[in-house]
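Appendix B: complex inputs.
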Amino acid sequence: MSNIPDRESIIAAHERVAPFIHRTPVYTCESLNKITGANLFFKCENFQKVGAFKARGGMNAILSLSSEERKSGVATHSSGNHAQAVALAAKENGVKAYIVMPSNSATVKKAAVLGYGAELIECEPTLQAREETLQTVVEKTGATLVHPYDDHRIVEGQSTAAKELIEDVNEKLDFILTPVGGGGMLSGASLAAHYFSTGTKVIGCEPSGADDAYRSFKSKKLVPQINPQTIADGLRTSLGKKPFEIIMRHTEDILLADDAETIAAMQMIWERMKIVVESSSSVPLAALIRNKDQFAGKNVGIVISGGNVDLKELPF
Amino acid sequence: MSNIPDRESIIAAHERVAPFIHRTPVYTCESLNKITGANLFFKCENFQKVGAFKARGGMNAILSLSSEERKSGVATHSSGNHAQAVALAAKENGVKAYIVMPSNSATVKKAAVLGYGAELIECEPTLQAREETLQTVVEKTGATLVHPYDDHRIVEGQSTAAKELIEDVNEKLDFILTPVGGGGMLSGASLAAHYFSTGTKVIGCEPSGADDAYRSFKSKKLVPQINPQTIADGLRTSLGKKPFEIIMRHTEDILLADDAETIAAMQMIWERMKIVVESSSSVPLAALIRNKDQFAGKNVGIVISGGNVDLKELPF
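Resulting structure:
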């Protein structure tokens, strides 16, 4: 138990990051309630700084650095949103940031990282290449590694999104659904529900083509993600060890959605809610629609994880 | 003066429609403030019912019908959003609606009108065809004509968007910018500023390829729009007589933007603000950027008129 962030550490993280992040709105949508038969509450982290919830974890990690660590900077790898989050948080705190990104990351995400003044190092789009490149950067610069999800400071930061969702919805939530990639958001939301909304079940939603969290959860053994095939570029990473430990204790279930279902859900969100969301953000709605009966008549919080899309590469 | 809606009639319209419409949020965006050098306040009517401010005018018109008029239903012509607005308002009040739409209206707009249970009558995409078809429908059915903009009940309804914008922004607005097509929104906003925010200048923004309001305003004589060429499908209509009368008294100026500028502004709004807006809604930001110096350092309200786009036909 001692290894898992406690209630106080999440409250402290929230107080730490609150002045630097947006308290994003919770949206409802009558027409999506009709389609799904559930009462949906969307936590719109696409309106968060850097366009994604990752701003929370990145900010919490940078604010937790010692003054000694600040001097040598920070380094991380990310398919995109965490990269921007660390770059922005570093910039706002006068810290140098080295960002390793897979070469197939969205152009808009690379541009944003450069825009925040970070140093961008591209690598092959495999987990192994990312981690090796990052290791080299850390050895060369002495920068502190800020892992995108396998880090309790990140988990605590991400948990503040679900904490706000719980605080800002007047009704009791029966469920909270989040996407799951590395597991930072899912483990953070699971902790937030555990500490601040007893009885709210947290469910991770994952693309069928990158179902390592599903297989890990069902087999109770961490299975790495090899050669993921999904449009949801934020969810291609392998589940981290630290998030996995929390998920095994506090997450209710993991549900899957095919890319076609995710694309349909994404289009529904754009057309009905008039908001720009990433494909990764659309996996929970897709999974909910696939498992409609389970959620009928229930109050369901959904974390819209981000809104950074390449408008020239839309899937519909 | 007696011909123009007075302060009390706008307050009354607001009280009438308020229970039936969303009080849409006002968004700010640091990165667009940086790009433009102005302090922008976006009134997000893309989040309005039917996805556009037209819900306001449509609802005000239907709620103003006599019980006798309700029996024979209502009829209107529209390139899209007004059609949905009248269809929804009619449905919610148990009134039959006949909607004349140009055959080149966006598929999503036609589908929405049918979804609200209205009768859809398609016509050639010219103003003349629309008005003739509408006349035939009115003669055949006895329905009350609810003109999309040349009607004071509509102007009063639309004015409530700018009224709310004025009420919800804590600072004094130097300018309010709205798109101008038929003139319902622009004349309504001009009246709202006149009655509720003395000194706030209201400016209409129009596509260069459909510049009848610009030419009418400059020549002080109503010039019809013939063969409009613009991507902004909501702004192809001719300025109405009643709006023109109000605009000549209470509007500060009319600015133009080319389609390329409008598309660039639209992409900026999608990418930076993460909201889905129509091309018509992007004309004010495009015109502001074209005339940057005029707005530098000023507080500028911008009415985002709607968010109904065909995702398969995006211009970028």
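Chain A touches chain B through 17 residues (CB under 8 Å).
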